[in-house]
Amino acid sequence: MQLSDPQLYRQQAYINGNWTDAGAQSVIDVKNPATGESIGSIPNLGRVETVNAIASAEAAWPAWRAKTGKERGLILRRWYDLVMTHIDDLAMIITLENGKPLEEARGEVLYAASFLDWFSEEARRHYGDVIPQTKGDQRLFAIRQPVGVCGAIIAWNFPCTLVTRKVAPALAAGCTVVLRPASQTPLSALALAELAERAGVPAGVFNVITGDARAIGAELTANETVRKITFTGSTPIGRLLMQQAAPTVKRLSLELGGNAPFIVFEDADVEKAVDALMVSKFRNAGQTCVCANRVFVHDSVYEEFARRVTEKVLDMKVGNGLESDVSIGPLIDEAGVEKVSELVEDAIGKGARLLAGGKRHALGGGFYEPTVLADVGQDMDVASEEIFGPVVTLFRFESEDDVIERANSVETGLAGYFFSRDASRVWRVAEALEVGIVGVNTGMFSNEVGPFGGVKQSGFGREGSRYGLDDFSDLKYICLGDVN
Ligand code: NAP
Description:
Blueprint: E1 13-15, E2 18-20, E3 27-31, E4 38-43, H1 47-66, H2 69-85, H3 87-98, H4 102-122, E5 129-131, E6 139-146, E7 149-153, H5 161-173, E8 176-180, H6 186-199, E9 206-208, H7 213-222, E10 226-232, H8 235-245, E11 251-255, E12 260-264, H9 270-282, E13 292-298, H10 302-314, H11 334-349, E14 353-356, E15 371-374, E16 391-397, H12 400-407, E17 412-413, E18 415-419, H13 423-432, E19 437-440, E20 455-456, E21 459-460, E22 473-480
Parallel strand pairs: 7-8, 7-10, 8-9, 10-11, 12-13, 12-18, 13-16, 15-16, 18-19
Antiparallel strand pairs: 1-2, 3-4, 5-6, 6-22, 11-21, 14-15, 17-20
Helix pairs in contact: 1-7, 2-4, 2-5, 2-6, 3-4, 3-6, 4-5, 7-8, 9-10
The structure holds NADP nicotinamide-adenine-dinucleotide phosphate.
């Protein structure tokens, strides 16, 4: 591996401005999912070190919150500039630890950087309100104040983005953060911490702790100093963190699993819908929370849609993300491949028609063939479970009412997509889908300006956008009396 700035390849935790492995009884190996080879290690830290990191964040908070929004924004801006300067190194680190193709990893760094850019500006626009009084001698105000020390826990599928999407708004709002990255992809978060330090983020304001998920999670949720938990990951772990945070009544933002419907109506532009599905489905080898999970296609365009998707899927090149022309990398680990295999076998066993792929790739390891399944039914596991792999499942439908009912028949509600050229239907369906994000005639909606988040068991809270600061601030009402 060649980084133009080898200093970005950090393999220690970052606590109170120090790179440290003090307290580690062991290390956790970080592996390249494309080769299975070790690419480094991180200290396996636990409860005591988490307590220390929280104490650092608490000590750093008064000075950080006392800065003006503009001052905090300028530091975030410098961090953004440094991320952009080191985009190639950061992309390389993402590909090495996550497996996604290098070009896609570059796209992720741009996306991650956009949150630093956006919140560097939003920091100075964190407005409150002047409220018209109900008594003549009173004046009423609502002001925004930072919630305090935040604990952040993130998944491995967007190793850079999940950091900045949480840390940028938290810091902009005047909070301090203790972040625990996923064990499989800690190196991107540590590289970002190195750049944060260079940008002038003061010691203790942003801490990265690596190690034992349960011990660190238990302390972050139980510790009274931590006033907020922001989590991106699976719904089961989200539920657990919610329970653990209940005794201290912490604020929570939960970005959890999805099971996105992707609906192609009879009046859709089929070609555009196929292209959009490829974008939505195969990013990160199908391991995104907003991935099209259930593709519902109207009976009248079903076979055409299936044929076109299959042609494109058979054209995809699977391989190590560092090689050129590779469009799809490996899954993150053996458990991921196992889960995808089981879902595909279950569907085929219950009568699904295999149009492409359907098994582990000849490259072995974490590689799975991009797969298309037709004639998928509601009785198959893929109808209710998040696939998290490169598998297109084609369901057939005949009426709008029926497809909306089926689209909404799952516990989660993160994203939904549909394709139609009927303006009334566009509004009707966009309003009817029980999700937090709707893509209409597009397979890609993620950016820093739109509010990202779910409903139902996909969680709550919104990241990015002008609403993003709200999750990291408390609203305080001030009633000023005796005004003559
Ligand atoms: P996961 O098992 O919930 O893990 C997510 C993070 O939580 C990891 O850092 C993990 O640590 C940590 N963790 C595990 N057990 C914990 C515990 N007891 N206490 C505290 N932390 C704990 O999720 P995953 O399967 O790796 O990630 C994929 C899931 O994330 C999918 O469901 C996907 O939809 C969801 N996701 C949602 C969004 C969104 O914005 N809504 C975005 C991306 C992903 P280890 O790494 O050590 O296991």
